[in-house]
Amino acid sequence: MKKILEKLEEVFFGHVGICILLLCVVPFIFVSHGLFRGIEIEQTPSEAEMEDLIVVGFSQLGSESGWRTAHTLSVQEALTKDAGYFLIFNNARQIQENQIKAIRSFISQRVDYIVFAPVIESGWDTVLQEAKDAGIPVIIIDRMVNVEDESLYTTWIGTDAWKEGEKAGKWLEGYLQEKQRQEEEINIIVLRGTIGSTAEIGRTKGFEEVAAGHRNWHILESVTADFTAAKGRDVMEQMLRRYPKIDVLVSQNDDMTMGAIKAMQEAGVSFGENGKVAVISFDAIRDALELVEAGRINVDIECNPVQGDYIHKIIQMLEKGEAVEKSYVVEENVFTKENVGEFLEDRTY
Q: In order of start, what are the domains of the chain with their CATH numbers?
């Protein structure tokens, strides 16, 4: 019997022990080296962490641009534990279904507030009704939603995309007049952002309304490049092959502009202050503003990503039972070579 027990002990603590060890260690190695791809673990607060903290579920539409990164960081820096918050973050990777799932997850976790930047404007009525039924205030940021019942969200914080597009058109009017080209036939390419997004809709309409007042302005094509540098480059390559004369590029964000600039450089097409193609960009991230200073981008219409402090202030008002406005528009500038130097030193994004 003693020999049998010794044998069992050897087997158990030998082979089985090794198996148990491997089962414990291998998953740790996989996780630490990022080998479990495609699995996004959503952070959930424990009861201890939630104690005396305001729990906020934040669904960001993606990370498609430098502007978006700055936007996310602004929210994360404002809603910290030191400021009294527990923030649950979700990256939707530019897929609406992911955002809807995230919002439903926030509802099931009974968060105090839901904050989200919608990837497109339509398709939110059902899930926002669920949030309303659960008694959870919803704060929409950056892009807007198109819903039948505006009571489905508490407030919106963002920029005036239509005004941004109008500013681009007004700048072009002044530029052509300054160059004494206001009577010339002007060929324009427009690189649009994600179709159906607030920025794409507003900037397109704002610019087109100004352009409609000039019979000599010809928008050759207005085509999406999805707010990414890679697609901006690809689409601009196609435009350069298709049209021998392009006078103006209107690119609805800096990332697409960066891609389009690479395409023009490779094609040997001059651009910017002393080039054949005037470049109008949007967002005004630091990298683009440096190109404005260098004369490579003629003008950059700001879309201010620093919206986290607005969220904090609004939540604090709601916590005190105070009324809030239905919308808050953040301040924005227009940057040219003449004024950009004043802002570059303090630009953190």
A: 47-159+305-331 (3.40.50.2300), 161-303 (3.40.50.2300)
